[in-house]
Write a structure and sequence with these properties.
- The chain is α/β, with parallel strands linked by helices.
- The chain has a single domain, classed as TIM Barrel (Alpha-Beta Barrel), CATH 3.20.20.
- The protein has 13 helices and 19 strands.
- Strand 11, helix 8 and strand 12 form a beta-alpha-beta unit.
- It starts with a strand and ends in a 20-residue tail after the last strand.
- It binds dihydropyrimidine-2,4(1H,3H)-dione and zinc ion (ZN) (2 copies).
């Protein structure tokens, strides 16, 4: 197959070229290439398939289970131009081994996933077995692990230090959910005692200071561990980014920051709406000033990746459980299907970032940081032919009924897009056309990831 004449986007260039695909891979990029089967991409952008390194398929949060599984969630991802995910796993039973949840998630994904997928390990306690298993799992393609600084299986500072020292030794990545657990829980209790249980108090209970303190602490522990590879997930505030940038200004290496479209595009005024529970997620939506400040960090290259934290629960369910008390509402929002269109439209089409920066943030950097590059995340000879053809000659209004996520709302209802996905290829196969998934079920492959490349910018 040949994709003819599109504007081919890589992390540094945009070139008008043809792409020859043989089997599952890109065989050549050049002019005048031909083959029996042709896709005409004249006037359109040809982008590397998106990589979302922060999803929560099947996540069990105790009071509810996230509603997208590896079939519905990856169909939605594919329709939105994402051709690979790296999923963050839910907690297993207390004391379980580090590979316990990996095994469980292989079962969840098998027979279902339609795009390629990997797993971050989840560290819920720290001992010799867990630290030993971090090495074993490299051989199984699991080269990053998540720690939480809040929630039931939070890791204390000594544990974070031990994990980071081990990560530095092995060259694996540690992803951290940074929020100060003690303060968040105290504030939740105070608010509930005072009857302040409306959705807006969800944001009040988890202030920017709690995120920034935890980011500062995690980054300084990483420094003490010899600049261990540390990836801060879902940075939602300017204050949080200041902690990241302070560490870097002091010469610290190997610290990376992720944000999500919701922190660039939505703000805490949404909690005042009658459907405010839709936006209960952690960290919460912030004061509007943070949107512009985070865009500045994206533009400056201080934020390396944009992922989604996709974790959908029906508004119906959120209202049933949380209508009288935000602390009873399952935390999370859908987003996996709209990351590429929103970031292209709000970022590239509005002139905030170049098409190259878009590719870096949404595909190339995630691939590098999580051991998938250059198989994924780039349009290059020898890479997997994971490709999105994006049409900018037309607009689109986001409505929930056109989406494939298994949930009864989208947080982006009514947003205007100035681009539209034409088609999506995964390993050389057209899997999405006219906003429909046309591939087989279970065609997705588990990605045995390599070690992170720590030069993503
Ligand atoms: N935050 C959410 O809102 N949902 C899932 C996990 C998380 O950290
Ligand atoms: Zn999180
Ligand atoms: Zn998450």
């Amino acid at each position: 197959m040949v994709i003819k004449n599109g504007f081919v986007v890589t992390e540094n260039d945009v070139t008008q070229a043809d792409i020859l695909i043989r089997g599952s891979q890109i065989a050549a990029i050049g002019v005048g290439l031909s083959d029996d089967e042709t896709i005409d991409a004249t006037g359109k952008y040809v982008l590397p398939g998106g990589i979302d390194v922060h999803t929560h398929m099947n996540l069990d949060v105790g009071i509810a289970v996230a509603q997208d599984d590896f079939y519905t969630g990856t169909v939605a991802a594919a329709c939105g131009g994402t051709t690979a995910i790296v999923d963050h796993l839910g907690f297993g039973p207390a004391g379980c081994s580090l590979d316990h949840q990996i095994g469980r998630y292989h079962e969840y994904a098998r027979g279902k996933a339609v795009i390629d997928y990997g797993f971050h390990g989840v560290i819920q306690h720290v001992d010799g077995d867990v630290l030993g298993m971090m090495e074993t799992l490299i051989g199984q393609g699991v080269t990053s692990h998540k720690i939480y600084m809040t929630y039931s299986y939070k890791i204390d500072d000594a544990g974070i230090y031990a994990v980071l020292k081990r990560a530095k030794q092995l060259g694996v990545m540690v992803a951290v959910h940074p929020e100060n657990d003690g303060v968040v829980n105290a504030r939740r209790r105070e608010l509930v005692e005072q009857g302040m249980t409306a959705p807006r108090y969800h944001a009040v209970s988890r202030p920017e200071s709690c995120e920034a303190e935890a980011i500062f602490r995690a980054s300084q522990i990483s420094s003490a561990a010899g600049d261990a590879p540390l990836y801060i997930v879902h940075v939602s505030s300017h204050l949080g980014m200041q902690a990241v940038k302070l560490a870097r200004r002091n010469g610290q290496k190997n610290i990376f920051a992720e944000t999500c479209p919701q922190y660039l595009l939505l703000d805490d005024s949404y909690y005042e709406r009658k459907d405010g529970l839709k936006y209960v997620l952690s960290p919460p939506l912030r004061r509007k000033v943070n949107n512009a400040q985070l865009w500045e960090d994206v533009i400056a290259g201080d934020i390396q990746t944009v992922a989604t934290d996709h974790c959908p629960f029906d508004l119906k369910l959120k209202e049933r459980l949380g209508k009288d008390d935000f602390t009873k509402c399952p935390n999370g929002m859908p987003g996996v299907e709209l990351r590429y269109p929103l970031m292209f439209s709000e970022g590239v089409m509005k002139g905030r970032i170049s098409a190259n920066a878009f590719a870096r943030l949404c595909a190339t950097n995630p691939a590098k940081l999580f051991g998938l590059y250059p198989k994924k995340g780039v349009i290059k000879e020898g890479s997997d032919a994971d490709i999105v053809i994006m049409n900018t000659g037309c607009g689109d209004t986001i409505t929930h009924d056109r989406l494939h996520e298994n949930v009864d709302y989208t947080p982006y209802e009514g947003f205007e897009l100035s681009c539209k996905i034409d088609c999506v290829l995964s390993r050389g196969e057209v899997i999405v056309k006219n906003n429909s998934y046309i591939g087989q079920k279970a065609r997705g492959q588990f990605l045995k990831r390599g070690l992170p490349a720590l030069d993503a910018k």
